[in-house]
Structures are given as structure tokens and as C-alpha cells.
Amino acid sequence: MKVILINNQDKAKLNLNIMEKVITYISNKFNRSQNYELNVVFVEKEEIGRLNKKYRNVDRETDVLSFSYVENNSELTFKRDANEFGYKSGHFTVGEIIICPEVAEDNAYKEKENWNSELEIILLATHGILHIYGYDHEGREDRIEMNGIQENILNDARSVFKI
């Protein structure tokens, strides 16, 4: 899968090269086709707060938002158009993950030893990818399953990339 990183923030320094490699590695666990794309957009606190209010009706900043184009969700009124575009162009965008590095840095600071904002962002990207492919954490069992998968994928990526 092709991963496209878009950095629309300048508050946090990001190593986009390693991020792209690791996120591509993780996303390829779900789909290896080069005809599929995943957009990961980095934004500032104000922007993610605005998006969180608009799309989730939650009036606060958050660390990550995911928008899936592969789920069967009637609220995604553009899904039919996206499928038609994908069919004609030979490319299909599976989703968008919006990450706020500022919030990720705050989260990383509260985490355990041997943790940093880069790992936190990779965790958030993994979390977003799982949502794009239909995983959820609303119920207790779903949360346990999603957290387990997320932890396994992250541990694998850390081992492969020595991060």
C-alpha cells in the first residue's frame, strides 16, 4: 500500500522518512497492493479540535481521527464516488488518518520509560489503521482485541525498525 504523509503543522519536528517506512510496513499487513493508498495528515491542535467537533461532535482536541473509505457505513456519502474514481483510475484511497503531533507529544510525556513522541505517533497511526479496517474499541471485548492487535503490530514494527 502506498502511504502518503502530509505535514500541515510546524509545532513538532517529525522524522517523516522513518514515519513513512514504519507506517507503510504496518499498513502492508492489511493490504499490500500498490493500487491502494492511505493518507496520513499531521495537523496542529486547533485543526484537530475543529475536525473532532465537526465529525464526532466532541468539542476538544484529540490525538488521532480516522476516516475509513472501506467500511460499509451509510454516513460516508462519498463512498460511491470514491469507489467509482478508484475503479476508473486504478487507485483507491482506503482512508485518512489525522494525527496531532502536539497531543502525541503530551501523551508520550505521560507514558512509560523508553517511550517518545515518535513511538506515540506510530502507535496512533496503527490505531487509525485498525479503525480503517473495521476494528473498534467501544465494547470491553472489542477494546481488548483491538489493544492486543495494536500492541503486537507495534512490537513487531519496533523490532524490525529498531525503534
Low-confidence segments, given as residue ranges, are: 73-78
N-end to C-end Cα span: 22 Å
- CATH top level? Alpha Beta
Remind me, CATH topology?
Answer: Collagenase (Catalytic Domain)
Radius of gyration from CA coordinates: 16 Å
Strand order of the largest sheet: 1-2-4-3
Please give the domain count. Answer: 1
CATH superfamily: Metalloproteases ("zincins"), catalytic domain
**Beta-sheet strand percentage?**
15-25%
Q: Helical proportion?
A: 40-55%
Tell me the overall shape.
globular
Classification by helices and strands? alpha/beta
CATH-defined architecture = 3-Layer(aba) Sandwich
Number of DSSP helical runs: 6
SSE string, helix = H, strand = E? EHEHEHEHHH
The total strand number stands at 4
Q: Write down the overall mean pLDDT.
A: 88
Largest sheet: number of strands, sense, barrel closure: 4 strands, mixed
